[in-house]
Amino acid sequence: MSILVKWGRERLHFALPPPDAKLAVLRKQIADYTQLPPDAFKLVHAGAVMKDDNAPISAYNITPSSTIQLIGGDTSAPTPSSSAAARGKAEPRTEEGALAQIRGELDAVRRTLVPDVDGFIAALSASSTSSATPSSSSASSAPASTPSRGKPKAKSGSKAQQQPAPSTPNEALVREHARLSELLLQALLRLDAVGLAGTGGDGWGEARAERKGAVREVQSVLDKLDGAWRARS
């Protein structure tokens, strides 16, 4: 479960802390990721500024899929240039920040790409079934048309002319497969790019284990997509 934090043009996903966790916990996660000092920005939810960092997040009615607006200390949203600069150096400084980044990325894949992949596979299966049906019906109708001489050629010719028509949905499936594959690959690259301190030693063991599991899960979705695509014929 995650929440969405809007920061100018940025859309950041963070793991939702327990309901009794203080707002300061969430503020620290955001500060670690954005590289902003914790006291340099305001958090706005449902049109109200969340001021008391010692209050539990449940007091602000923050739930899964909530959207929070991050506003700079001067109450102005970051400019595109400052946003891009922050993105370029948005490497987590603590293990909690790394965990939030990993969980947010995985949650986004689960909420958006996994349903799209399942829908694509269902459409792929339906397309294969519908394309197989005309061929079987035409095969069964062929013997019945053999007694007549002139008409069978006209029927087979008309069917031959209608065969190229199903290419349009196939092209749509090709584009959708390419889109989903690209988005899943991008998610894998973002997970791989999460900076982890002490990667060569024992530092941040929980974050390294969680990233490994997240990469494995996203890769399994990609394998499922490619497997269904290869088996379509």
UniProtKB/TrEMBL annotation:
<feature type="compositionally biased region" description="Low complexity">
    <location>
        <begin position="75"/>
        <end position="86"/>
    </location>
</feature>
<dbReference type="GO" id="GO:0005829">
    <property type="term" value="C:cytosol"/>
</dbReference>
<feature type="compositionally biased region" description="Low complexity">
    <location>
        <begin position="126"/>
        <end position="148"/>
    </location>
</feature>
<dbReference type="InterPro" id="IPR036533">
    <property type="entry name" value="BAG_dom_sf"/>
</dbReference>
<dbReference type="GO" id="GO:0016020">
    <property type="term" value="C:membrane"/>
</dbReference>
<feature type="region of interest" description="Disordered">
    <location>
        <begin position="126"/>
        <end position="171"/>
    </location>
</feature>
<feature type="domain" description="BAG">
    <location>
        <begin position="175"/>
        <end position="229"/>
    </location>
</feature>
<feature type="domain" description="Ubiquitin-like">
    <location>
        <begin position="1"/>
        <end position="77"/>
    </location>
</feature>
<dbReference type="Pfam" id="PF00240">
    <property type="entry name" value="ubiquitin"/>
</dbReference>
<dbReference type="GO" id="GO:0051087">
    <property type="term" value="F:protein-folding chaperone binding"/>
</dbReference>
<dbReference type="GO" id="GO:0000774">
    <property type="term" value="F:adenyl-nucleotide exchange factor activity"/>
</dbReference>
<dbReference type="GO" id="GO:0005634">
    <property type="term" value="C:nucleus"/>
</dbReference>
<feature type="compositionally biased region" description="Polar residues">
    <location>
        <begin position="158"/>
        <end position="170"/>
    </location>
</feature>
<keyword id="KW-0143">Chaperone</keyword>
<dbReference type="GO" id="GO:0050821">
    <property type="term" value="P:protein stabilization"/>
</dbReference>
<dbReference type="InterPro" id="IPR003103">
    <property type="entry name" value="BAG_domain"/>
</dbReference>
<dbReference type="InterPro" id="IPR039773">
    <property type="entry name" value="BAG_chaperone_regulator"/>
</dbReference>
<dbReference type="InterPro" id="IPR029071">
    <property type="entry name" value="Ubiquitin-like_domsf"/>
</dbReference>
<dbReference type="Pfam" id="PF02179">
    <property type="entry name" value="BAG"/>
</dbReference>
<feature type="region of interest" description="Disordered">
    <location>
        <begin position="70"/>
        <end position="96"/>
    </location>
</feature>
<protein>
    <submittedName>
        <fullName>Uncharacterized protein</fullName>
    </submittedName>
</protein>
<dbReference type="InterPro" id="IPR000626">
    <property type="entry name" value="Ubiquitin-like_dom"/>
</dbReference>
